[in-house]
Each structure stands twice: as structure tokens, then as C-alpha cells.
Structure to design on (607 residues):
């Protein structure tokens, strides 16, 4: 048992579980290079034809464009709101701080389907359902908690007295924010922004309800295709999304080390 | 139908309603037919009791031929209008709020006398559904904690850089989307897919199995998807544990099993609970994975919410199911808070 060093039994169990965690995705990655339409394992040969298919298909390219557009917009809105909320919660001393923090992180623990359904009700009433701004707002709701938590973590070592010092030296609030606060917390803000982008990129359930008929994002396009007919092109799309997630993860890990 | 509602509100539910209600109903159902609101209206009433849709549509279409006094011409068109029961149902449906959906989501219904009863067994659906959701979520949570515990313990015990490398292997699947991983499983579990190939190769089966559309496929992929969610909070707690407790136990002569049971397990319990709660919270709301990989009998509450929202356009049912699902999630979060004084979101960060 773990004390000084993990025992061989523990190492073996860990290795098995990690294999179970990693192998399916690796197998799917490998299958996406299959030269044939019918999936065999291991694939008989190597081909990029399904990736070519992906980049030549108008539907997939449109879905990619939509995903990047919504992801980018969500990132901007969620980062602005989440950072502002984090700074307010950290520096402000007021009653109900804990309640507010709980409320803001609520989407993290609410079942997604419930968040999605309630947003669908609310947005339908005010005519936002089925619109692109509605979709961005929906994604923002689930992305903000990640930004908030990330920025709060980087703020935990920041002393509010530094802002008062800046103010006493005649710095306007905006200058103090830009020159004193932001340099200290930017890795947290940037990591939060990447979190927000990744959340939006992967988000599917909210998109299913809130997106208009023509607004296909990558996950929505994938889902529609899997249900109709499983082609290796879907696997190439899944692999591309997967690689992008890994890239984003490495970026946040690098930011966290700063 | 505002005038019908007004006329029925004045009625005391004894005997038949006044002529004003009959007249308002005849007129307003005709008007609803003309501006095409009748469909939604009829569907809403049909949900109260099947048969009301047909009744309302027939009445609306016959409106031109109806003449005062409506209290006689309506029952002549359909005997249901002569039954106070029908009017009571209408009156109740016209109220600003109704407990109908919340009751129906638990397979309950209200009789005309206002009594709460179970619906007939052939219409019962939701209790089974909630039990199934609960059962699947508990199974998944248990599997995730059992499989995740050794990994978390290992990450906490390893030295850098091995601990970071192992952690990264957990973080990569955590970051990749649920849909991507469900899709991967969909490809792997095909009849000619690798999982069947592997089983054939091992001699476990003689001919390929139909795996898609089974409960097994749902459980396997859900455990795979939620495993990192269970592991990460456990790592968070275990990495901060004071190793000296274990050294002390060892120096006092405790064997590995005793050290595990009396020291390591109790100390890591907050992490285990947080991981389990987080896994459970996500599992009860799972939609995509059962929808892709499960059959009709493997769908959870979330699937029905989506169905009611998008296909049947029955918002009342969708909202009632969402409310119960949220209550379930809230109960788990509250339980965790009571046990460890922590909120799930706090441990996830």
C-alpha cells in the first residue's frame, strides 16, 4: 500500500486502469486512418482519405467554422465575466459572498440536461432560442465557473493592499488594474480562457436544444452523422477534436506552471 | 380559452356548469380552430385525459352547426359534454398552476374528485425510469471509485516526474469531449469492431455479439468517460495527506492491510466521497452516451427530457422531470456537504 512507494500490486492495477482509459481513444485514432470504409481492426493499411473527406466536405467545414466562432465568442464573454466576478469576490468584503460563489459555480454541479432544458425554456420566452447569440450565452453559462475558479486560484496570493498602494500613488483604477493586478493574475485568466474555449468546443447537450436548424457545430454534426450512418469520416472528426483538446490541455498545464 | 376559463372559475363543480361556460367553449374552440391554436390546446387537454383531444377537435369543427342553447346542443354533439366530469377536468386544466406534470412524473394522477392515485400499470413509466437512472448512476459511481482509487493512490505516492505523467494520462481523457469518446466506443463496439474481435480472439465468444444497444455498452462507456472525474478529486485529497501517519503506523507494526484499512482509507475518505459525488452528479444527467450506445430500455431521465422538449413539445413534462433530476442532484450535493463540509465544485477545481 502507498506509504513510501507504491506496491507492485498497486502499480499493476493502475497500469490496467490507465490502459482502459487510454486504449479506446487510441484505437479510434488508429481506425480513423483506415483505408477501407468498413472498419477492421487493426486497419489494413494506412490512409488519410477520411481526413481528406473531412476537409473537402462543406458540411464538416461549416460545422468547424461554427464551432470556432461560438467557441471564440464564448471565450471572450466568459473570460470577461468570470474574471470580473473573481476579482469582485476576492477583493470585495460583503455579506453573501459564499452564496454568490455557490450560485456562480452551480452550473458545474447541475446535470447538463437540466441546465440545457431550463435555458431552452428561458431563451424561448425572450426569442433567443435558435439564435447564435443565444448559443454563445448558453455556452457562457457553463464556461464562466471554470474561468471563475481558475482566476480565483491565481488571485489567492494577491493582496488587495497593493491596489490601495497604487491608488495612493495616484493611479486610476483602470491603470492599477492593468499595471498591478493583471500582470499577477494573467496566467489564471489565460488558463480560464482556454478552459472556456474547450468547454464550448465540446459542449453538445445545450447546443442540441439552443442551436437553430442550420447551426451545426462539430459535436452536433458528429452526433447527427453517427445516428445516420457511421463512416470513418466521423472518426477523423473525433480524432481532430481529440487532438485539439489535448493541445488545449497542454497549454493550460504550461500556464499553470508559470 | 379565457372566457371559458372565467365561466368555469365561477362554477362550483356541482352539477353541470352554467350556459355561459357552454357558449364560451363552443365559440372559443371554433376561434382556436381558425387561428390554428387548437392543436396545442387539444394536446394539452389530451394529456389530462386521453380522448379530450378528439372531443375538442370535433367540437371545434362542428362549431358552425351548433346553436344556442349550447347547454343542449353540445351534449347532443357528444355525450361527454353532458358529463360534469369533463368540465371538472377542463376547469382544473384552466388554473394558473397545475400539479399534473409533477404528479405524472411520479406515475401519479389526480382523479376527478381531486384524489391522488397511481396511474394504471400499463401507463406507468417514470418510477421505473427514475429507479433505472438511480441504479445505473450508482453502478457507474461504484465502478469509477473502485477503479479510480488505486490510480489516485498511485499518483499520490509516485515521485515526479512519474506522478505528473500518470496524472496527464488521466487528464487527457478528462479533457476530451464526452461525445468524442462515446463516438469512439460506438466504433469499437460495432459487430465487426475491435472489441468483438478481441473477444473472438480470446475465445470468450463463438460469434460476434450485438453490443450496441445494450445496457453493457452504456455502463462500459459511461464508466470510461466518468473515471477521470472520480480520480481527480481523490488525487487532490491524497496528495495533501501527511505521509508520517503511515510511517507511524508501520513503525508501530501495522501490516499493509491494517495500514490501508485504518489509516489510508479513512484519511482519503473525503476525496473518495467528493469523487463519488461528482461522478454521480454527472451520471444522473447523462444523455449522449445512452442515446448513442443504449437501446430503448437503457435510456435515462435525461433522454426523456430531451424527447419531451424536442419531439413531443410537452414542456410541462420536461420541466417536471428536470425538477426531480435537479432534486436528486441537490440531495447528493447536500449529502456530500453534510459528510465532508465541502461542495463538489470546490473539490473539482
Amino acid at each position: 500500500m502507498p506509504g513510501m512507494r507504491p506496491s507492485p500490486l498497486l502499480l499493476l492495477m493502475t497500469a490496467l486502469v490507465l490502459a482502459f482509459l487510454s486504449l479506446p481513444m487510441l484505437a479510434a485514432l488508429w481506425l480513423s486512418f483506415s483505408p477501407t470504409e468498413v472498419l477492421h481492426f487493426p486497419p489494413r493499411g494506412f490512409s488519410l482519405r477520411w481526413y481528406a473527406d473531412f476537409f473537402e466536405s462543406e458540411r464538416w467545414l461549416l460545422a468547424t467554422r461554427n464551432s470556432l466562432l461560438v467557441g471564440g465568442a464564448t471565450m471572450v464573454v466568459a473570460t470577461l465575466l468570470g474574471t470580473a466576478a473573481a476579482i469582485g469576490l476576492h477583493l470585495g468584503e460583503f455579506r453573501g459572498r459564499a452564496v454568490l460563489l455557490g450560485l456562480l459555480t452551480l452550473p458545474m454541479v447541475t446535470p447538463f440536461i437540466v441546465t440545457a432544458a431550463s435555458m431552452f425554456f428561458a431563451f424561448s420566452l425572450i426569442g433567443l432560442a435558435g439564435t447564435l447569440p443565444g448559443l454563445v450565452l448558453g455556452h457562457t453559462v457553463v464556461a464562466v465557473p471554470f474561468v471563475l475558479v481558475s482566476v480565483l486560484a491565481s488571485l489567492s496570493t494577491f493582496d488587495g493592499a497593493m491596489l490601495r498602494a497604487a491608488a495612493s500613488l495616484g493611479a486610476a483604477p483602470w491603470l492599477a488594474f492593468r499595471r498591478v493586478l493583471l500582470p499577477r493574475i494573467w496566467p489564471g485568466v489565460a488558463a480560464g480562457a482556454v478552459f472556456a474555449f474547450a468547454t464550448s468546443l465540446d459542449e453538445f447537450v445545450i447546443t442540441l436544444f439552443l442551436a437553430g436548424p442550420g447551426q451545426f457545430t462539430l459535436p452536433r454534426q458528429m452526433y447527427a452523422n453517427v445516428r445516420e450512418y457511421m463512416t470513418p469520416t466521423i472518426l477523423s472528426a473525433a480524432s481532430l477534436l481529440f487532438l485539439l483538446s489535448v493541445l488545449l490541455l497542454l497549454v493550460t498545464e504550461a500556464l499553470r506552471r508559470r | 380559452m379565457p372566457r371559458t376559463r372565467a365561466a368555469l372559475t365561477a362554477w362550483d363543480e356541482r352539477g353541470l356548469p352554467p350556459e355561459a361556460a357552454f357558449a364560451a367553449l363552443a365559440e372559443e374552440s371554433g376561434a382556436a380552430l381558425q387561428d390554428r391554436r387548437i392543436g396545442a390546446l387539444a394536446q394539452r387537454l389530451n394529456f389530462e385525459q386521453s380522448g379530450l383531444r378528439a372531443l375538442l377537435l370535433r367540437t371545434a369543427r362542428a362549431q358552425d352547426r351548433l346553436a344556442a342553447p349550447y347547454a343542449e346542443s353540445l351534449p347532443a354533439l357528444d355525450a361527454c359534454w353532458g358529463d360534469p366530469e369533463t368540465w371538472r377536468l377542463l376547469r382544473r386544466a384552466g388554473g394558473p398552476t397545475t400539479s399534473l406534470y409533477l404528479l405524472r412524473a411520479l406515475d401519479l394522477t389526480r382523479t376527478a374528485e381531486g384524489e391522488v392515485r397511481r396511474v394504471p400499470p400499463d401507463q406507468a413509466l417514470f418510477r421505473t425510469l427514475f429507479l433505472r437512472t438511480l441504479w445505473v448512476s450508482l453502478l457507474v459511481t461504484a465502478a469509477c471509485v473502485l477503479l479510480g482509487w488505486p490510480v489516485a493512490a498511485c499518483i499520490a505516492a509516485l515521485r515526479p516526474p512519474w506522478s505528473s505523467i500518470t496524472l496527464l494520462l488521466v487528464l487527457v481523457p478528462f479533457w476530451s469531449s464526452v461525445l468524442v469518446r462515446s463516438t469512439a466506443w460506438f466504433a469499437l463496439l460495432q459487430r465487426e469492431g475491435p472489441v468483438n474481435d478481441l473477444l473472438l480472439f480470446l475465445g470468450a465468444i463463438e460469434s460476434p455479439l450485438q453490443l450496441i444497444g445494450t445496457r453493457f455498452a452504456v455502463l462500459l462507456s459511461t464508466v470510461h468517460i466518468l473515471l477521470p472525474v472520480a480520480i481527480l478529486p481523490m488525487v487532490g485529497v491524497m496528495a495533501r495527506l501527511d505521509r508520517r501517519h503511515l510511517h507511524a503506523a508501520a513503525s508501530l507494526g501495522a501490516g499493509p492491510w491494517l495500514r490501508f484499512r485504518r489509516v489510508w482509507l479513512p484519511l482519503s475518505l473525503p476525496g473518495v466521497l467528493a469523487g463519488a459525488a461528482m461522478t454521480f452528479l454527472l451520471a444522473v444527467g447523462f444523455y449522449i452516451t445512452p442515446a448513442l450506445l443504449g437501446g430503448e430500455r437503457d435510456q435515462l431521465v435525461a433522454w426523456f427530457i430531451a424527447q419531451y422538449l424536442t419531439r413531443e413539445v410537452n414542456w410541462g413534462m420536461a420541466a417536471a422531470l428536470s425538477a426531480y433530476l435537479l432534486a436528486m442532484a441537490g440531495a447528493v450535493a447536500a449529502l456530500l456537504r453534510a459528510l465532508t463540509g465541502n461542495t463538489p465544485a470546490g473539490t473539482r477545481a
